[in-house]
Each structure stands twice: as C-alpha cells, then as structure tokens.
Amino acid sequence: MQLADQLFVTRSAINRWESGSRIPDNRMIAQIARVLDVDINILLNATIDRNEAPNVILVDDSKIIVRGCLPILEEALPGARIYGFTRPSEAIACAEANRIALAFLDIEMGTMSGLDLCRTLLSINPRTNVVFLTAYVRYAFDAWSTGASGFMRKPLTPEGIRDQLAHLRYPFWTGGSGK
Q: Which of 20, 40, 25, 30 lies closest to 125 in space, CA to CA?
C-alpha cells in the first residue's frame, strides 16, 4: 500500500506487477527504483525472461529479400525465434498468437503499408519494437510518427541490426553476447 501511494498507482497495479500478470513500463520502473533506492538495472533485469527466446519477425513483400535477410537475422540474434513473412496478414496472425519482441518491416508492401502494419502490431502489443527496413529514406519522417523504434536502409547487415538493438525502446535478451 505504501509503494502504491508513493508511485500514485492503485494497489491492484502493484498486485499485477508482483504476480507477473503485468510489467510496469520503463518510466515506472525508474520511479520504482528511485522509491525503493535500488539500482534500476536490477529491476530491468527482473523483467527479462532468459528462458524464453524472443520472437522476431521480418515482413517484406519480396520473397528474395525475406530469404536473404533471415540468415543475417539469425547471425545477429542467435537466441531468437525468427519468422519471415511476405504478407502482412501472416505477420498479424503471428503477433496475435505470440509476443513479438522485434519486427523488421518493409514500408512499401502491396495492400497494406509497413506503416499501417506497424500501427496494427503496436495495437496488439505496445511493447513490440518496430524497425523499418526500406530502400526509401523519404519515409523516415512518416515512420517516426508510428511509434517505431528504428529505421534502417536496405540492405540488412548484422552490424546494422546490432546498432538497432542498442537503441530499442523495449530491450530484450537476444541469447547472445548482446542485451
């Protein structure tokens, strides 16, 4: 009750955090660390499930791009489950069935743009990190308005992926030497 009062949240919010049914966002974790006088990294690491491999998706309407990028993602994210899709509807179905930690999205795709797909993925899980992967820099401003974590120019490289991992809104454990 005291912690709830100091954080200006309900006791039920604290109960959900304690039971693991909800996880506080990064700003709230920082406030909890301040109130409890503990290192924020202790609290952040407590939210990481190292037994669960993160789900990463790549969505591009080109089969050649998907096939070529999957091995690059596997190299950069050795502990992740990686899925490639050429249809946004397949990615949405995957996100509805699984918690997606990171999504690499092309912007120009047939019937649904990557910008719209980003919004849909974030409505399913607001903690999904989205990185746009495109050949068109002109989309950068539109991409930022969606709540995405990053923007990369094609071609995808392991170094580019690792750079993006360092700047994600919601970091996750990759199973390798990274986060």
A: 25
